[in-house]
Amino acid sequence: MFKILLLPITLLLVIITTHIYALDTTEPFDIGFTDFEMIGAMGGLGLAKGEKELGWEGVVGVGLTENFSATLNYGFSSDEYFNGEGTEEFSFGIYYSAKKSGIFKLDLIGSACTGGGIDFGTEINLDFKTFGAQLTVVEGFGNIDTHKVAYSTSLEPLFYFPIAQSMELMTAIDFAFNHKPVDGERSFGIGGIKAGFNFAINDALEFLPEISFDIPQKGESFSTGFAFQFISTLPAGN
């Protein structure tokens, strides 16, 4: 498993906030400012004109201790024609490796963004010789207006398979439970199925392309999306 940090949860097929999530597993950063990432995504392919979304996010990651890391993210999203002002957001994330024993690993994650959203959760990872499995559970809170707060729980089972010394295949599906639905929102939703690769180009650079397929629910149309992520890792102490 490559030494990289998950932007909490995963890429949603249609980008509904400016925080873009990459299909990835989680590891703490080396001490210091050792991680720099760039993510680009497009969602809603197959939908009508003006309903597709483009997103970009830049990430700076720092290892604070051997088990504790933090990220500072800036994200921007718009429709495919860049109409309107778009949406931009800053966010701060934390990651703590709480337990690691044999094939088992338990991590704690959390983030907060300028749009008023806060989330925290846990990741449970089982890393076998021929494959690995990870379950991410996140509780999210966000402002609807000055008197209402959205509250949701998201689940993402993820599986990864080493297929070469410097390559992994990953696949995942995400679910969400909306505990306070408003304006006709569903209380349960399925985001989509995602698949991608992690290529270690060299010791300092990784490339992660992925494709996602929306699972249509009532009133929805089928659509696809894609994303790419570059991860640059500097030696500790720089």
What does this protein look like?
Strand 1 and strand 2 form a beta hairpin. The chain has a single domain, classed as Porin (Beta Barrel). It is globular and about 45 Å long. Helices cover 0% and strands 63% of the residues. The protein contains no helices and twelve strands. The protein has a twelve-stranded antiparallel beta barrel with strand order 1-2-3-4-5-6-7-8-9-10-11-12.
Helical content (DSSP H or I, runs of 4+): under 10%
Mean pLDDT: 85
Specify the overall morphology: globular
Q: Topology as H/E string?
A: EEEEEEEEEEEE
CATH class: Mainly Beta
What is the CA-based Rg, rounded? 17 Å
Strand order of the largest sheet: 1-2-3-4-5-6-7-8-9-10-11-12
SS element count, helices: 0
Largest sheet: 12 strands, antiparallel, barrel
CATH architectural arrangement: Beta Barrel
**Under CATH, the topology is which?**
Porin
Task: Give the full name of the CATH homologous superfamily.
Answer: monomeric porin ompg
Broad structural category = mainly beta
Distance between the termini: 23 Å
